[in-house]
Each structure stands twice: as structure tokens, then as C-alpha cells.
Design a protein that fits this description.
heterodimer, A: about 400 residues, mainly alpha, 2 domains, two-stranded antiparallel sheet, globular, B: about 400 residues, 15 helices
């Protein structure tokens, strides 16, 4: 018995040695100018047996570059062009919803076919927003048609009443001392409900419920390929690396220089989607969220390079929770903002805020609490959207209840 | 003996540490090591030329509980139960009804009249229902001859079928002919070439070519079924013992087939595609058994979806035709002390409720209230996530198919 135990111990030490050697041998990260060591203790995959065995410590080293730059054989492995493309499409579609010059067919074409944009590169990209809207494994299939319906409603009802006076049950223009907006018969300003809904249904859903989950990262043979450094056909990256980069792209895809060292401290807020509000949260609601998120992105990516998937998944968990909070903060802010503005008698400004709030509430079902559950599911969110449905008759007490539930669930 | 155990366990440890633990097995027993945690120290090296302010290095630690438990589950008991109490009886059931379908098809082709027509229609419905219990077994000969592609590729390609009819084509081995045969092909031949029963019978009376192609279809379905079922008799023994954890073992392949079937055969094909989940708008002409519903012969799309769901549930629970439960994925999950088995049972039941909530005629359902179809999709999708991500990782089985992501 004792002898066996000893043999077993030797096996484990041998194993620990192998891991150290294999990890240090495969470092391929460049861009290193200075090395700082930080020690993070994580639960390991090591295993003990029926006889209480020794606790084994496996040391592995992960090189994390300070900027989001990774390379293989001297060539960058970072790529997220498809995400930048979709974010630009969202911007153009948002602009289109601020004019009365597009037809229903044109709006639906932009959304679902990925063509009909003024920037010609978008039209030939082969990318579409529609198939990435509520497209993750957890998303309800009932949501995507709601976005189509918004575009249809805008073309069928808002545009024909562009100069009419809006009232309860009547689409048209609504003006107060602060602004003038175009709404449907329920008071929804559709450019706002649409684009704020897209922040959750496309940007956040694709990041937290798709690209950084094992479902996507480890799909098929991706783990084995990454373990072996096997790159995707004709590319410099492994498929797993690329999936993580695509998650990066849905947040940072419109940064002029996504490789800058201070990307974490000062996101530009470029575009009309997630980064825009991420910047605002970083400047007010939660100062420092920018660094937290940026660190998790580069560390998780470095974890993939080092083939340390537990470390990768810990970083993914940070991203899931933090990016979900962007949605929560804005849902709360805009519902509160509506109540302040309506009390001040500024109906147009209030409906504008509530339209943004409506989109962010819709987005709440695409959040992820770190354990792959949304903070609020599709049914709960639908219940709230029903309460909010007619802006002309919505009750403050319903909105206050939503605000309170969101704040409690997110701890904000 | 003890020493051998240690070596086995050590080999398993290697598998775990290298995160590609696909080959940990011995001859008959797969050992599962659970709930073990030890501490790993990961040294994270941040590299920078500037800004120490952005290196807010977090330090966290977590101590493993060092609980120790070694357990073994004989996967062979699952395959044995599946082979003897599910696959064999379902194959035999299917073969018997296909024999009857062939006879009915031949009789109608020889003597097209209302009585023969009605009998053929009934046999088509009965056999289509029983097919739902067979489609998922893409194993052995079935996999080799592309059984499920030949029997149930839909929507039917009517241009191809009409050409085949005109050419009196009898060789349907080209994969391009998959959507021109099987149940969707027969659906078109007996419910789709005209829109009423009498008009269809009249076509068979007026020109022989329809009867000839119909006979070709029932003959083809009968021949392929026979090939698969006969081969199963000899394949079965080696199937039951093929339990090692490799990409090509029967256990791993069947498990992947099951998950694949649930995702594609049931969720995507029967509900998702016609409901427009993967397209810009709904596509009601993609429902299973389309012509039977379209021309008001019999609305069986929902019935087939319900049978398919039950077939998946039977396999998951290891439920024999008499209702007895045997070793199964469910009992394996229970053994691994995960609550996943119970969750899946609840969700499979919820999926039944959701499907039952649909109209018998899916075309009508899609055109009047497609949201219900999408809710049924959701009810199936949540099961797909549990099967594909959670169950397979509990069994330590790699998914052998990848979704095209589009990026």
C-alpha cells in the first residue's frame, strides 16, 4: 500500500514537470517590452485519488501583453472585421430610422440581407445584422421578428405620418421645448427602441452568450486545434483565438486604434451601439469598468494562447457580468430619466428617454450572470414590455417596480 | 490489482491535465473521477512599456476541497439496453410497416382506385410515424448507405421528381435524388401531383409513369430498410461492446447521433426552418409532410414532431416499448450525481406541452401565429444546449459536428 502510494506520488510530480515544460516551450507572444509578474491562484484540473493524496501545485505561465496584440510567426492573429462591419451597418440603419426617405423594403434589406448601405464595402461584406440578432444559443427565437416588426411599423405608420401631430393612437411628430421626435401610435421613437434593443440582442448576446462560451470556443475540434497550434485554413489564427477576437470586436470594433495601450482607460465611444454606452458607464455609473473589461479581454485571449482554458473561462465570466451591467445601468437610467422629464412636462423628451429605456429593457434578456443564465428571462422581459407598451398610458409605479427589480438583481 | 488501478487512475489524470481527455479508458469500465480539486498556481505575466495604472492586478485564491471519489459506470449496460430494448424492436417495427407500405404502394400502382389509395395513405402515415423512432440511429449500415438522407430529406424536390417520372427513372442512388424519394417523395406522389384524391387517382389511371415511379419509391425504401435491419442483426454484438471513449466508438457516435438528431432532425428541420428561425421570413412550405397538409389530406406535421420528441425521450430514459426503464443517458447522468438528468426530463415534458399547443396543420400555424412555432423552437433549443454542452461534457465526449458560424 505504502509503495503504491509512493509510485503514485511520483507520477504526479512527473506530470507537474511535464506541464511546466510544455507551457514554457510554447510561448509565442511578442510585443514584450517589460515583464511584470502577477500571481493569480486558480482552481486547477489536477486530480487526487481514493487514498488521500498530496496536493499538487502545477505552475503554468501566461504572458499577457498590455495591449490587445497577439501574433504567431511575426504576424498578427487578431481579426474582427466582421464585427466592425455589423456595427457600421447598425449605424447606417439607425441613421435611416431618423429620416423619412427609406422604404420598408430598403430597411428590411439592410437589416436582413446586409445590402443597400451607402458604404459600398458593407454591401459586399456578406455580413448581416439580422442573423446575429437574438442569434445565440440562449436567445428566444421570438425576439428577432420583433425587430423586423419595428422596421415595418416605422415604414408603414411613422413615415406616412411624418408631419402629423402625434397623440395616443396616432403616429406622428411630437414636439416640446427640448426636442422634436417622430413616434408610432404608442409613442415609440423607433430609431431608439431599435438601436438600444440591438445593443442587447446583437452586441451583448453575441459576446456573452456566444463567442466567449465553451459552446462556441470549444465547438467541434477547436480545442484540439488550439492545443496543437493548428491555424484555420488560410489564416494566422486558430479558430478559438478568432472566436474570442470576434467577441472583442462587438465592443471595440469601431475603435480607430484597438491596439492602443490605454484602450481600457479611455474607450472612445465610437458608433451608436455598445461602445457608446460603455464609455458613458466608464465615465459615470461605474468608473473603471473600462479597465476591468479590457483586462479580461486581453487576459482571456492570452489564456487561449497559453492553452489555459480555466483561466480563459474565468476572464469570460468577468466579461459576462460586467458587460451585462452596461445594459442594466442604462435601463435604470432611462426609465428614471423618463419619469423626471414627464414630471417636468417635456413629453417629447420623456418619450425619447422611454424609447431608449424600452430598448434597454428588451436587451436585459440577453444578459449573462456569469453562470450562463440571464438576469431576467424572456418571459419576465416580455411582461415588462407589455406594461410599458403604450407610452401615453404607462404608469410610473410599473416603471419604478422594474427599476427596483433591475437594481436589486444587478446589485447596482 | 491495486497497482493496476493506480496506473489507470494516473492515466486518467494525464488526460485531465492536458484537457484532451478523450482516451481514458480500460477494457470494459470507464472510470469517472469526480469532484476533485487541487490548487494550481497560474503565474500571469503582464508585459508593458508604460502605465502601471492599467495593471490593476487582481489576486484571488481558491482552495480545492480535496474531496475524493472514484467511481465507475459501465457504459456497456446502456448500449445493451438501447440495442435490445429500443433499436431492435424499433427497427423490426419499422421493417414490418414498410413491408405493408410496399404492398399497398404496389397495389395502388397496379390498380388505382379509392380503396387502394386510402390504404396506401394510411400505411404512409403509419410508417412515417414509426420512422421517427429510427431516424436518429445513424449507425453501422444506416450511416454507410445514408439511410436517413434517403428516407427523409425534405422539402421534396418536385422538379427532380417530375423529371424522374418522365424518364421512368429507377436508379435513385445519386445524392441529388435524396429529396426525390423516401417519405417526402411519396408525399408528393400521393398528395401533391394534383390537389384532390380523385384527380390524383385519375393521373395514375391515365399514365403508367406515375405508378412506375411510385413503385420505384416504395421498392427503394423497402430495399434500403431491409439492408439496414438485416445488417443490424450482425452488427449488434460489436455495437454493444464498443464503449471506449474514442471518436469512433459506438457509444460516442450514438451519443453524438442522438444530440445531432435532436438539434437538426427535430429542432431545426421540423420547427426552426419552417418557422423562419434561420431565414428572413417563415417558410411554411418546408414543413414535414407538406403536401398532405397543403391539400387537406391529413395534417400530420405536428403528429410527426410529437413522435420524434417521444423517440428522443425514450432513448434518453432508456424506455422500452412496454414502458420499462433501463440503463440510459439519464441513469448515467444520475450516477454522475448531476441534476442535469432531472432538468432534461422536465424540459422534455415542457417541449411536449409546447408542441401540443400548436395546430395540427403547421402551415396554418405558421401563417396565423408563427410566434407559437418560435416558442416551440425555444422549448427544444433549451434542451439542445443541455444535451450538447452539459451532457456531452459530463460524459466527456467531444462533439463530432460543428455549426457553421457564418463569420
Amino acid at each position: 500500500m505504502k509503495t503504491n502510494n509512493l509510485i503514485f506520488k511520483n507520477y504526479l510530480f512527473l506530470l507537474a514537470g511535464l506541464v511546466i515544460i510544455s507551457c514554457s516551450k510554447d510561448e509565442e507572444v511578442v510585443y514584450i517590452t517589460e515583464t511584470v509578474t502577477e500571481t493569480v491562484t486558480v482552481p486547477g484540473p489536477t486530480v487526487t485519488v481514493e487514498v488521500p493524496g498530496p496536493t499538487v501545485t502545477v505552475i503554468s505561465s501566461i504572458e499577457v501583453p498590455y495591449s490587445y496584440e497577439f501574433a504567431r510567426n511575426g504576424k498578427s492573429t487578431v481579426s474582427f472585421g466582421g464585427q466592425t462591419t455589423r456595427l457600421k451597418m447598425a449605424d447606417e440603419l439607425y441613421s435611416a430610422l431618423n429620416t423619412n426617405t427609406f422604404t420598408k423594403a430598403q430597411l428590411l434589406e439592410m437589416f436582413n440581407d446586409g445590402t443597400g448601405f451607402s458604404e459600398s464595402a458593407l454591401n459586399t461584406s456578406g455580413k448581416k445584422m439580422g442573423n446575429k440578432t437574438a442569434g445565440s444559443q440562449y436567445a428566444s427565437a421570438t425576439v428577432k421578428p420583433l425587430f423586423d416588426a419595428m422596421l415595418t411599423d416605422f415604414a408603414d405608420n411613422v413615415i406616412p405620418n411624418w408631419a402629423s401631430d402625434a397623440s395616443n393612437g396616432q403616429a406622428g411628430m411630437l414636439t416640446d421645448a427640448t426636442r422634436s421626435i417622430h413616434v408610432n401610435e404608442k409613442g415609440h421613437e423607433i430609431d431608439q427602441t431599435f438601436i438600444k434593443g440591438i445593443i442587447g440582442a446583437m452586441c451583448v448576446d453575441q459576446i456573452v452568450n456566444n463567442y466567449i462560451t465553451p459552446y462556441q470556443l470549444d465547438s467541434g475540434t477547436r480545442k484540439t486545434e488550439n492545443d496543437n497550434g493548428t491555424v484555420a485554413s488560410g489564416k494566422d489564427y486558430t479558430n478559438m483565438e478568432h472566436k474570442w477576437d470576434e467577441a472583442f470586436g462587438y465592443l471595440y470594433g469601431q475603435e480607430a486604434d484597438p491596439t492602443r495601450l490605454d484602450l481600457g482607460i479611455s474607450p472612445t465611444g465610437n458608433g451608436t451601439t455598445l461602445n457608446k454606452y460603455f464609455k458613458k458607464i466608464n465615465a459615470s455609473n461605474q468608473v473603471g469598468i473600462g479597465i476591468t473589461v479590457f483586462n479580461a479581454y486581453r487576459r482571456g485571449r492570452a489564456g487561449i494562447v497559453a492553452r489555459n482554458y480555466e483561466y480563459r473561462d474565468e476572464q469570460a465570466k468577468i466579461l459576462k457580468i460586467e458587460l451585462s451591467k452596461v445594459i442594466a445601468y442604462k435601463a435604470v437610467d432611462y426609465l428614471n430619466s423618463y419619469m423626471t422629464k414627464i414630471a417636468a412636462g417635456n413629453t417629447a423628451d420623456a418619450f425619447h428617454a422611454l424609447s431608449e429605456g424600452y430598448g434597454f429593457v428588451m436587451s436585459l434578456q440577453f444578459t449573462n450572470d456569469g453562470n450562463d443564465n440571464p438576469y431576467f428571462n424572456n418571459a419576465t422581459v416580455n411582461g415588462w414590455l407589455t406594461q410599458m407598451d403604450n407610452f401615453w398610458t404607462v404608469s410610473n409605479s410599473d416603471l419604478e417596480s422594474i427599476v427596483s427589480q433591475v437594481k436589486t438583481a444587478f446589485g447596482i | 490489482m491495486k497497482k493496476i488501478n493506480y496506473i489507470t487512475i494516473s492515466l486518467i489524470c494525464i488526460g485531465f491535465i492536458f484537457s484532451c481527455s478523450k482516451d481514458s479508458s480500460d477494457d470494459n469500465i470507464i472510470s469517472q473521477v469526480q469532484n476533485n480539486q487541487t490548487t494550481t498556481t497560474t503565474t500571469t505575466t503582464d508585459t508593458s512599456s508604460t502605465s502601471s495604472s492599467s495593471s490593476s492586478s487582481s489576486s484571488s485564491s481558491s482552495t480545492g476541497s480535496n474531496t475524493t471519489q472514484v467511481s465507475s459506470f459501465d457504459r456497456g449496460t446502456i448500449l445493451e439496453n438501447y440495442a435490445n430494448n429500443i433499436i431492435t424492436p424499433k427497427y423490426n417495427d419499422f421493417k414490418n410497416i414498410i413491408d405493408e407500405l410496399k404492398t399497398a404502394g404496389d397495389n395502388f400502382a397496379e390498380t388505382p382506385n379509392v380503396a387502394n389509395y386510402d390504404l396506401l395513405h394510411d400505411k404512409w402515415v403509419e410508417s412515417y410515424k414509426k420512422w421517427q423512432y429510427v431516424e436518429m440511429f445513424n449507425i453501422g449500415k444506416a450511416e454507410e448507405i445514408m439511410f436517413y438522407n434517403k428516407i427523409n430529406t425534405y422539402p421534396a424536390n418536385t422538379i427532380r421528381i417530375n423529371n424522374n417520372i418522365d424518364e421512368n427513372k429507377t436508379d435513385l442512388s445519386n445524392p441529388n435524388d435524396w429529396p426525390a424519394q423516401g417519405f417526402p417523395g411519396i408525399d408528393y406522389m400521393i398528395h401533391g401531383i394534383e390537389s384532390t384524391k380523385q384527380a390524383i387517382i385519375d393521373k395514375y389511371l391515365s399514365e403508367d409513369k406515375y405508378g412506375i415511379y411510385l413503385k420505384t419509391l416504395v421498392n427503394e425504401i423497402s430495399t434500403t430498410t431491409n439492408t439496414v435491419v438485416v445488417d443490424w442483426d450482425t452488427y449488434k454484438a460489436s455495437f454493444i461492446t464498443s464503449i471506449e471513449n474514442t471518436a469512433t466508438s459506438a457509444f460516442n457516435m450514438l451519443t453524438n447521433d442522438f444530440v445531432f438528431y435532436f438539434e437538426k432532425g427535430l429542432r431545426t428541420n421540423k420547427i426552426g426552418i419552417p418557422a423562419g428561425r434561420f431565414s428572413t421570413s417563415p417558410l411554411p412550405d418546408r414543413v414535414e409532410a407538406y403536401y398532405s397538409s397543403k391539400n387537406s389530406f391529413e395534417d400530420i406535421s405536428k403528429l410527426l414532431a410529437l413522435e420524434s420528441r417521444k423517440a428522443a425521450e425514450d432513448l434518453f430514459l432508456g424506455r422500452a416499448p412496454n414502458g420499462d426503464l433501463g440503463a440510459s443517458y439519464k441513469s448515467y447522468l444520475d450516477y454522475l450525481e448531476t441534476d442535469l438528468g432531472g432538468i432534461l426530463v422536465t424540459k422534455l415534458d415542457a417541449a411536449k406541452t409546447s408542441l401540443n399547443d400548436l395546430e395540427d396543420n403547421f402551415i396554418t400555424q405558421i401563417n396565423t401565429d408563427n410566434n407559437k412555432m418560435l416558442l416551440a423552437f425555444d422549448a427544444l433549443q433549451t434542451i439542445v444546449v443541455n444535451l450538447k454542452t452539459d451532457m456531452l461534457s459530463n460524459f466527456n465526449i467531444a462533439v463530432d459536428y460543428t455549426d457553421a458560424d457564418g463569420d
